[in-house]
């Protein structure tokens, strides 16, 4: 077993002398232990997490709608009126109202 010293830097003379060493005496380059490649971006989700994210999306959408409703009530200084909200959804032909009727 041969003892090898790592030489830091890029030396012209070292490269020139390395060319003079016969092929059968050259040692393969020392490779550092390979680290597993880090995946970039968001990690992939498992099946259970995908189902959970559907629920999170629904809760987030519902919260967004409620924030808009409450903000409007606050700005106009009127109490929340569900009948008025449902009437506005019906006038617009909202799919939210269609889903509420079937459920």
Topology:
Elements: H1 12-20, H2 47-76, H3 82-92, H4 95-102
Offer a concise description of the structure.
By secondary structure, the protein is mainly alpha-helical.
What labels would you give this structure?
103 residues, mainly alpha, 0% strand, rod-shaped
Question: How does this model look, in words?
Answer:
- This protein has 103 residues and is mainly α.
- It has a domain at 66-103.
- Helix content is 56%, strand content 0%.
- The protein has helices spanning 12-20, 47-76, 82-92, 95-102.
- 0% of the residues are buried.
Shape: rod-shaped
Distance between the termini: 77 Å
Number of helices: 4
Cα-based radius of gyration, to the nearest Å: 34 Å
How many strands in all?
0
Main sheet record: none
Q: What fraction, in percent, of the residue positions are helical?
A: 55-70%
Question: Would you list the SSEs in sequence order as H and E?
Answer: HHHH
